């Protein structure tokens, strides 16, 4: 089960939590990552996988004013991305533009397109709609959900609507449904809430506590995956929010992040605080025909869903990202600032 | 500073802080004599100290500061004083407000009560009048009632006399219509009266009825001994006779004689058939088939009876006995009627019966085991401690092993019997038993899962446990299940396998291509994985509780505005309490492991890292000297260290489980720390808490190096997330820890 270390490494200077696939870059496989250092000057790295696929090249190195807690690349413009940052006491979020490089590395100034200033609480994340061009943006803080309309050319972002999830819910993150521009999921302390952006009302919820991370399956509607502190990974069908379709054991400690593969709907990647990244193959019963019989005959063919476990990390892994250009490649980021890019191709061909 | 324009809720919070600090037990504890000890470290907070010397403070300030700073200080202080003033005013105002409202309430209560008294008096008066009236009614009606009662009594008496006089006629009528039951009832009813007055007034009546009764008794006796009557009527007759105090002994003896005779008749019956049909060929086809049908009917009836019998709890000897009786009958009949193929027919029927017997035996065994397990459950729920986990484990262990051994013994009796029927069935029984065990352990595994509540996908077809199922299994039960699984894998299965090999080998009735039905390897595998799963589940359940505790601890306070640490935070107590509870449960169930000092025997890479001189030196130093240089050291040590294996496999020992729980919790602690940003005091608080945890936690774990590493990691991470990471001075740290220790000692002086 131990994955052979075929990974390509890249080191950041400081500790880091977040890494994002640059989806809009169709010519290269690139990732964006930002550091998390309270006292040093933080950096955003634009990393590109060399054409041979055996080296990680730093394409751009930009200084960022504060430590970065969340980073997301714009899915339709490779030069735009969002960050959530903290000054130690207060939180903020901003949209940035990478300046034209013309082949030089020494242009460290990021251009701030706009700041998302309406927040009062701790901002948790900024979401882009994953499936294409959309002038909307979602940001989530501890209590409130904001819908922004963003105009990059005019460099303004306006609050279109906002709704409070309630004082005690303590939102901690979320995901935007790639199949439905108006549906978003937000994780709170005791449940996952589903919101309709047109009415800004709650439509549904999964009553389950301690969820850390959530990801929609980009290939199958209604299917989503959650990661939990102690009890691993669950796959849900939104039409049956009471009981998960499948459970995966997760990690030896907390499961911090999950990501569905952009092409293979059964492949799931998870990162944990036990310093490992696990690759799972969900059972095919995640189809629409999920019924009781799939449960009944499952004991006879109980195959281990764990395809591979990458344990070559020194610290907790908080960031993972599939490449959407080459969907058999993923990047992972451990807290000590090490980026490792791995390919799962040899495992897939075996299947 | 901008104290003037703080928002209102900030002010309120500040006020609360002030109040809480005022009421806290020993405010001088945190910074007892900083002013006198070091002139350098004078901060604003010292004003709050009890030993504050204003003159000295002024002198110091004037000497040290230039005009600008003094002015600034002045402004700051003015602002603060103003602030305190408003706080004070607000508090007074609020107190006054509350006082006024309390007075109002009391006034209102007073007026309400005054009105009530008159009402009560009125009520009392009315009740009195009602009572006197009811007494009046009672007395006026008393006389009439007496009279009515007297009349009624006379009438009853008359009716009885009438009945006695009518009795002989009535009995005669009963004899005619054969309603003996009624007759007996009448007679016994009248008996006491006859006994009292039979010699005087009712003499004639008595004689007449006795005569009638003699006839009845005779009739009944006749009924009892006549074969033509149905069994039911005969039984009725016997009961009636008994009611009439008829001498039962002689009756019984006669009846038994009669029964023996009829039994002989029955046996003869079969022989009669043979006698009657000396040459069965003589019989017509029709008659023969009728006979066959009849005999098969008899056999089926027999086996149906057995099935009924099996449903009750019987042991194999009883089953054998019954089978033997049937078999002799069958053989007898077979002699006469070999066309009926009765032996084959009964063989088939016996197969079914045996199968059922085996199945019911196993289901009963499963039930017993689950009973012994759920008993813990129920008892624990009722809060009874005496039924400890240990006894539950022992009981269920015994239920498993003893139960299966008993079952095997039972089956062996069946197999070793030389009854022809069973000899033919032997391979089948062997297969059945093997299969039975295989299925039984599968079912047991499912049942365990259900009990643990860990898997909601277990299908609901195990109807018999649904009543006992509870949504949330408690942790102790899961631990019992884990250890029981190990016991089954390591002790029960080998023993059973041995037993099966000794006396149940060579089944093969269902063909060898399937291999033997009982595959101990597979069952062992199932239970090994089940045991591991339960152990993990247990660890998870325990850590989850502690995680929740830690989460509350770390998400509630505002760490950036944390106050200077005064004492070890109480979450440490809760944490240790949870660990103690875990340890207590674990001690009951799991064996004690060899206490290994992993620092010396761990595998290659990690070994070198742990025994680096820096670390050893640090460990050997007294804790008081440690704090200051610790940060640097841990950073350095980390550089030289290879990756430490935190998440090793859990083993079935007390220490391993507790250590795993501790490790997971400390890791969680580290992760929570990483999510926060601390000011200096917040960091110092963490430092203090962790330092305090160090000793008690290390006492209960087996791998101290890893725990040290994790605790250091927490401090390092806190310092990384701290805006101003200056650790507490070692003496202060030490004093705070000593104070905490003293406090714990005071609270429970019994435990040293």
In short:
The complex is a heterodimer of chains A (351) and B (752). Chain A has 351 residues and is mostly beta strands. In chain A, 3% of the residues lie in helices and 48% in strands.
Structure description:
The complex is a heterodimer of chains A (351) and B (752). Chain A is mostly beta strands and 351 residues long. Helix content of chain A is 3%, strand content 48%. Chain A is built from two helices and 28 strands. Chain A has helices at 292-296, 345-350; strands spanning 8-11, 16-21, 30-35, 42-49, 56-64, 67-73, 80-86, 91-97, 111-115, 123-127, 136-141, 144-151, 156-164, 173-176, 183-187, 192-196, 201-206, 211-216, 223-228, 232-237, 246-248, 255-260, 267-272, 277-281, 306-310, 317-322, 329-334, 338-343. In chain A, the strands form seven sheets. Chain A has a four-stranded antiparallel β-sheet, with no helix packed on it. In chain A, strands 2-3-4-5 form a four-stranded antiparallel β-sheet, with no helix packed on it. In chain A, strands 6-7-8-9 form a four-stranded antiparallel β-sheet, with no helix packed on it. In chain A, a hairpin with a 6-residue loop joins β26 (317-322) and β27. The model of chain A is unreliable at 286-301 (pLDDT under 50). By secondary structure, chain B is mainly alpha-helical. Helix content of chain B is 76%, strand content 0%. Chain B has 24 helices and no strands. In chain B, α4 crosses α6 (203-225) and α11 (342-381) packs antiparallel against α12 (389-416). The longest helix of chain B has 111 residues, at 67-177. Chain B is flat. Chain B starts with 7 loop residues before the first helix and ends in a 5-residue tail after the last helix. Chains A and B meet through α1 of A and α15 and α21 of B. Chain B: This is Vacuolar protein sorting-associated protein 51 homolog. Chain B: Residues 602-612 have a biased composition (Polar residues). Chain B: Residues 67-133 form a coiled coil. Chain B: It holds the Pfam family VPS51_Exo84_N. Chain B: One of its GO terms (biological process) is Golgi vesicle transport.
């Amino acid at each position: 089960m131990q994955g052979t270390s075929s990974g390509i490494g890249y080191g950041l200077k400081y500790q880091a939590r977040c890494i994002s696939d640059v989806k809009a870059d169709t010519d290269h496989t690139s990732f964006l990552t930002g550091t998390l250092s309270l006292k040093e000057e933080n950096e955003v790295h634009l990393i590109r996988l060399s054409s041979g696929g055996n080296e990680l090249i730093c394409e751009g190195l930009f200084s960022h004013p504060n430590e970065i807690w969340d980073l997301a690349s714009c899915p339709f413009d490779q030069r735009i991305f969002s960050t959530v940052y903290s000054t130690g006491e207060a939180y903020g979020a901003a949209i940035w533009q990478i300046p034209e490089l013309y082949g030089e590395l020494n242009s460290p100034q990021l251009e701030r397109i706009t700041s998302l200033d309406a927040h009062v609480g701790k901002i948790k994340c900024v979401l882009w709609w994953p499936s294409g061009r959309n002038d909307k943006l979602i940001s989530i803080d501890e209590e409130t959900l904001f819908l922004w309309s963003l105009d990059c050319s005019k460099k303004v972002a306006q609050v279109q609507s906002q709704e409070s999830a309630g004082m005690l819910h303590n939102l901690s993150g979320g995901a935007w449904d790639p199949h439905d521009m108006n549906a978003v999921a937000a994780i709170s302390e005791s449940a996952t809430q589903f919101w309709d952006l047109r009415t800004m009302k709650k439509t549904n919820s999964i009553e389950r506590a301690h969820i850390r991370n959530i990801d929609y399956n980009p290939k199958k509607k209604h299917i989503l995956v959650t990661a939990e502190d102690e009890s691993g990974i669950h796959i849900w069908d939104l039409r049956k929010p009471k009981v998960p379709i499948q459970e995966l054991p997760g990690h030896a400690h907390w499961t911090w992040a999950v990501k569905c593969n952009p092409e293979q709907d059964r492949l799931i990647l998870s990162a944990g605080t036990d310093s490992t990244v696990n690759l799972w193959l969900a059972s095919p019963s995640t189809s629409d025909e999920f019924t009781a019989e799939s449960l009944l005959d499952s004991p006879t063919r109980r195959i281990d869903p764990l395809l591979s476990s990458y344990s070559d990390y020194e610290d907790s892994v908080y960031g993972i990202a599939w490449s959407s250009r080459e969907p058999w490649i993923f990047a992972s980021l451990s807290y000590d600032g090490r980026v490792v890019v791995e390919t799962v191709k040899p495992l897939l061909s075996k299947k | 500073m901008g104290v003037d324009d703080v928002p209102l809720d900030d002010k309120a919070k500040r006020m609360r802080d002030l109040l809480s600090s005022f009421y806290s037990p020993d405010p001088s504890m945190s910074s007892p004599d900083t002013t006198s000890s070091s002139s350098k470290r004078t901060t604003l907070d010292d004003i709050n100290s009890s030993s504050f010397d204003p003159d000295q403070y002024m002198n110091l300030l004037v000497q040290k500061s230039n005009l600008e700073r003094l002015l600034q200080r002045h402004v700051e202080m003015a602002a603060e004083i103003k602030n305190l003033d408003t706080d004070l005013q607000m508090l007074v105002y609020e107190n006054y407000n509350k006082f006024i409202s309390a007075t109002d309430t009391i006034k209102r209560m007073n007026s309400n009560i005054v009105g009530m008294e008159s009402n009560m008096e009125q009520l009392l008066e009315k009740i009195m009048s009602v009572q006197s009236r009811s007494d009046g009614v009672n007395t006026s009606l008393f006389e009439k009632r007496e009279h009515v009662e007297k009349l009624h009594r006379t009438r009853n008496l008359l009716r009885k006399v009438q009945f006695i006089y009518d009795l002989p006629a009535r009995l005669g009528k009963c004899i005619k219509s054969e309603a003996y039951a009624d007759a007996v009832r009448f007679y016994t009813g009248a008996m006491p009266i006859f006994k009292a007055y039979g010699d005087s007034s009712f003499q004639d009546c008595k004689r007449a009825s006795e005569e009638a009764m003699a006839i009845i008794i005779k009739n009944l006796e006749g009924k009892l001994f006549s074969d033509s009557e149905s069994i039911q009527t005969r039984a009725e007759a016997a009961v009636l006779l008994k009611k009439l105090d008829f001498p039962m002994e002689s009756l019984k003896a006669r009846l038994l004689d009669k029964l023996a005779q009829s039994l002989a008749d029955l046996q003869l019956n079969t022989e009669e058939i043979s006698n009657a049909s000396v040459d069965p060929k003589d019989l017509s086809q029709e008659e023969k088939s009728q006979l066959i049908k009849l005999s098969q009917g008899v056999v089926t009836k027999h086996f149906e009876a057995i099935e009924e019998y099996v449903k009750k709890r019987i042991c194999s000897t009883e089953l054998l006995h019954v089978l033997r009786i049937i078999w002799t009958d069958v053989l007898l009949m077979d002699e006469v009627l070999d066309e009926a193929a009765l032996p084959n027919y009964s063989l088939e029927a016996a197969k079914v019966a045996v199968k059922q017997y085996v199945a019911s035996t196993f289901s009963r065994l499963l039930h017993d085991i689950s009973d012994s397990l759920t008993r813990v459950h129920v008892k624990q729920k009722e809060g009874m401690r005496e039924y400890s986990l240990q006894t539950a484990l022992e009981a269920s262990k015994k239920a498993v092993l003893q139960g299966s051994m008993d079952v095997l013994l039972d089956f062996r009796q069946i197999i070793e019997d030389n009854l022809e029927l069973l000899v033919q069935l032997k391979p089948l029984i062997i297969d059945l038993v093997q299969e039975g065990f295989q299925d039984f352990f599968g079912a047991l595994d499912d049942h365990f899962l259900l009990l643990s509540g860990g898997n909601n996908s277990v299908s609901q077809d195990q109807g018999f446990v649904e009543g006992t199922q509870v949504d949330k299994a408690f942790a102790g039960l899961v631990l019992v299940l884990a250890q029981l699984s190990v016991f089954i894998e390591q002790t029960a299965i080998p023993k059973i396998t041995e037993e099966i090999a000794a006396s149940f080998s060579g089944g093969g009735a269902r063909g060898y291509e399937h291999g033997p039905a009982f595959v101990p390897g597979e069952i062992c595998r199932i239970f090994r994985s089940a045991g591991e799963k339960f152990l993990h589940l247990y660890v998870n359940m325990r850590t989850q509780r502690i995680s929740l505790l830690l989460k509350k601890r770390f998400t509630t306070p505002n760490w950036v505005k944390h106050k200077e640490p005064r004492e070890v935070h109480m979450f440490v107590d809760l944490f240790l309490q949870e660990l103690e509870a875990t340890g207590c449960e674990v001690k009951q169930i799991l064996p004690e492991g060899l206490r290994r000092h992993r620092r010396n025997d761990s595998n290659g890479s990690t070994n070198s890292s742990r025994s680096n001189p820096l670390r050893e030196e640090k460990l050997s130093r007294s804790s008081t000297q440690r704090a200051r240089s610790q940060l640097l050291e841990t950073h350095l040590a980390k550089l030289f260290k290879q990756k430490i294996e935190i998440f090793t496999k859990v083993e079935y020992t007390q220490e391993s489980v507790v250590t795993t729980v501790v490790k997971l919790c400390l890791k969680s602690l580290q992760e929570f720390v990483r999510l926060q940003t601390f000011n200096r005091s917040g960091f110092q608080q963490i430092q203090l808490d962790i330092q305090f945890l160090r000793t008690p936690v290390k006492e209960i774990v087996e791998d101290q190096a890893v725990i040290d590493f994790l605790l250091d990691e927490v401090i390092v991470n806190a310092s990384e997330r701290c805006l101003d990471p200056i650790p507490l001075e070692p003496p202060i740290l030490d004093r705070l820890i000593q104070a905490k220790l003293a406090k714990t000692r005071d609270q429970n002086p019994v435990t040293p």
